[in-house]
Structure formats: structure tokens, C-alpha cells
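Researcher: I'm preparing a figure for a lab meeting and need a structural model of a single chain. I don't have an experimental structure, so a prediction will have to do for now. The sequence is pasted below. Please return the structure as C-alpha cells so I can convert it later.
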Amino acid sequence: MATGNNEIQQLKHDLKLIFYLNDHYFSYSIFNTVNNCFEKIKKHKIKHGKHEFHNQISDIINLDDDLKLKYKTTLGAIDNGTSTFIPNVLFDKKNIKQYIEHTYGQTNDTYQCVQQQFANCYAIFTINNNLLLSLNQHFDNLTIKSSGSLLVDYVINLSQKTASQLFAQINRNNFHIILIANGEFEFYNQFHFDNDDDFIYYFMNCLNILGIESSKLTMDIMSDLDKKEPLFEKLREYMIINFINRPDRFLYNDEIIQTASHKHHNLFSQLICE
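Model: Understood. Here is the structure written out cell by cell.
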């Protein structure tokens, strides 16, 4: 009996919990550090209007047996606040509120900062106070990043060091766009949209501001949406698009292998950018 209990404790010790949260769903994965394998991926939908957002997240965690377990390390990425980037030479932690408020105005949210792993800058972002409190109450040794911070580091890691590349994370109602020039971080922004036409307008306007000719462009895309979404069909009218496959440095259980290979980068990337 004692041996069995020790084995269970050791198993938990060797697992990492990784989650991603936006306005529409809470997804998570369990990663086994011993065999370098993603063991499970699960997604919970957020029901708008039911009750306060942070209470919904607490309910999800309390009703999921995997999320109720204690993990040595928990990594999380949040995609429902504001964020910006400040070069290392200009960064002063005392000014993190001003960095956000200069662009987005005042907010009552908590301000966080993270030094980028692969770029010489800091990411400053906001997170709802009640949500942050709830996450810290549920998860031990929690590291939280904004989705923008995570994406910038991830695509720098993916990029070719001798060419300029444009990357996008495209979600149901928002997208993130990042320009990497010769391995260096050049541009990041995020946009919310209500329909496919809005998406195309914001996307193409962004390319115009950057001075990029879409006809000469191959866009590298990450998304949890299906490849047959009308949104992607419209995008193909303006440029060649390439869906990035899951990282080949990890192992994946059979159930994950059966899912589309362009999905779940918002989970896999967190280990690479840890």
C-alpha cells in the first residue's frame, strides 16, 4: 500500500499542468516530464452571462479531477487583457501602469510584467484582479504570461534567421499578428473582430501599414479553428497561408496525434518559452 501511494506521488511530481484561457474557453494539457510527452488535452467552454468570469473558471477547476490535483509547476497563458512591449533599455518596473495606460487608458486590473526569453524586451499586460486571485488560490507555483508575450517568443524560436516572416494566431473573435525580421522581433499587435469581413479589413490594413505586399507573402498561421473555416478561405484570396504543425521535439499520446496537427500551439509553446 505504501509503495503504491509513493508511486502516485512521484507521478504527480513528474507532471506539469499547462493551461490557456480566453473569453471563450479554458483549455489545458498535462505534460509528463519523464517521457517528454503530452498526455492529455481538454477544453472547457465559457458560458457567457451565466455568472462572473472568474467564478466560472473556479467552477471549471473544482469540477475537473485533473485540475484539482496539485502539480509541481503550472504554466498559464491569458488572452483576455491588454498588453504591450517595452525594450529592456527603456523598461522601469515602477512605470508598468503608465506603459499600459498610455496606449489603452486606465484600468482597475492588475498589471504584470514578464521578461521575454528570445527578445530584448519586457511584456507588460493586465489581468482581472479576481481572476488572478482565483488562479493563484487553485494552482501552486503558477507562472502566468499574456498570450502576446508567449506568441512573440514562440515565433522567434520558429523563425528562419535569414528572412522576414509574418505569423498570426487566429481565434474566433480576435487575432494576433507578429513580424519577425531576420530573427529579430519587429512588430506585434492584436485585433478583435465581429465577423469575417472585419477580420479581412483589419488584417489587410495592418499589412498596408507595414508596407507588405500580400501577393508576395506566405503567412504562417496557428489556430484552434478548423482549416476549412470560411475565414481562411477568404484569406487565401489575398495570400498563401501555411498552417504550422505541432512541435516535433515532444511526444504526444495517441488521442492528441489524431487531432489536427496545427492546433494547440497555445499549450505546446509554453514549454518551449518557459
